[in-house]
């Protein structure tokens, strides 16, 4: 039946024997697609009222009566609306990335230019915390693929490093050729992550420390976006971390994608 979606898995059984497991995943996939579609629609609908709210907050900001209570209230309104906007943006990115079974585009991505943009944003963000940020990029290493997906993966990792590294820490970003393909790595001297959390980090809304992550402006969706983006490049995220010392997030884009 061509309408059915089947999933095949081969597992070791006895010596020299394999077990083939065939699962009908049609209903599961349909439900997953309805969930994705629902999230995409809701986030899209939330965008307009949020933009309207931001406009009114700007008007309030221009007309405060020098009342500290009122100023504080407007500041909180501004902060929370900005948080909601990033959540909506991240939800839309995740739905978009989840929707495509494969990459949407196979175009040459000038990764060096992309990383220069991310570096400028990172330096601006890291200034307040006096972070030392170093990008070590091979300018000739370009790949073929969809820029949105690669940008999402790289920028989420860099901005997380900034978010979870205390003042005066350092962050190093590497983009270089290795025998297996193109290697990207973000190292930080931040909080680090305990081993039991590492396996769960790419789940939607999973956070090690709920309140800390919220305070730093996190949405809990960054690493699931990274995971989905990377799956389109047939690769996955490696996470190594030592609690209190720092973390290293890396991936290798297979050499078939190198331009
Ligand atoms: P968030 O928006 O909360 O940062 P993510 O999906 O990007 O969500 O990350 C999930 C969780 O992983 C974060 O809440 C944080 O606890 C942890 N995390 C991510 N990156 C780092 C990092 N560089 N150092 C320490 N912890 C991290």
UniProtKB/TrEMBL annotation:
Keywords: ATP-binding, Cell membrane, Kinase, Membrane, Nucleotide-binding, Phosphate transport, Phosphoprotein, Transferase, Transmembrane, Transmembrane helix, Transport, Two-component regulatory system. It catalyses: ATP + protein L-histidine = ADP + protein N-phospho-L-histidine. The chain holds residues 171 to 429 of 429 of the full protein. One of its GO terms (molecular function) is protein histidine kinase activity. It comes from Psychromonas aquatilis. The gene is phoR. It comes from the Bacteria. Its EC number is 2.7.13.3. The keyword S-adenosyl-L-methionine does not apply. Its main location: membrane. Member of the two-component regulatory system PhoR/PhoB involved in the phosphate regulon genes expression. PhoR may function as a membrane-associated protein kinase that phosphorylates PhoB in response to environmental signals. Residues 41-257 form the Histidine kinase domain. It is found in: Cell membrane. This is Phosphate regulon sensor protein PhoR. The keyword Phosphoprotein applies.
């Amino acid at each position: 039946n061509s309408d059915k979606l089947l999933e095949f898995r081969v597992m070791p059984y006895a010596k020299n024997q394999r077990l083939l497991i065939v699962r009908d995943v049609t209903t599961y996939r349909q439900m997953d697609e309805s969930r994705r579609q629902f999230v995409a629609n809701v986030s899209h609908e939330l965008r307009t009222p949020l933009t309207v709210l931001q406009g009114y907050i700007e008007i309030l900001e221009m007309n405060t009566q020098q009342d500290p209570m009122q100023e504080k209230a407007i500041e909180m309104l501004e902060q929370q609306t900005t948080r909601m906007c990033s959540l909506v943006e991240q939800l839309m990115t995740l739905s978009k990335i989840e929707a495509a079974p494969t990459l949407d585009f196979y175009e040459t991505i000038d990764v060096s230019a992309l990383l220069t943009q991310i570096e400028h944003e990172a330096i601006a963000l890291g200034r307040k915390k006096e972070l030392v940020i170093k990008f070590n990029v091979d300018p000739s290493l370009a790949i073929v693929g969809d820029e949105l997906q690669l940008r999402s993966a790289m920028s989420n990792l860099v901005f997380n490093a900034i978010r979870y590294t205390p003042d005066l820490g350092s962050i190093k970003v590497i983009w270089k050729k290795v025998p297996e393909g193109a290697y990207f790595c973000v190292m930080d001297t931040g909080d680090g992550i305990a081993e039991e959390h590492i396996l769960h980090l790419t789940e939607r809304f999973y956070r090690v420390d709920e309140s800390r992550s919220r305070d730093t402006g996190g949405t809990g969706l960054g690493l699931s976006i990274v995971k989905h983006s990377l799956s389109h490049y047939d690769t996955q995220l490696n996470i190594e971390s030592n609690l209190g010392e720092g973390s290293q997030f890396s991936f290798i884009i297979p050499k078939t994608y190198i331009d």
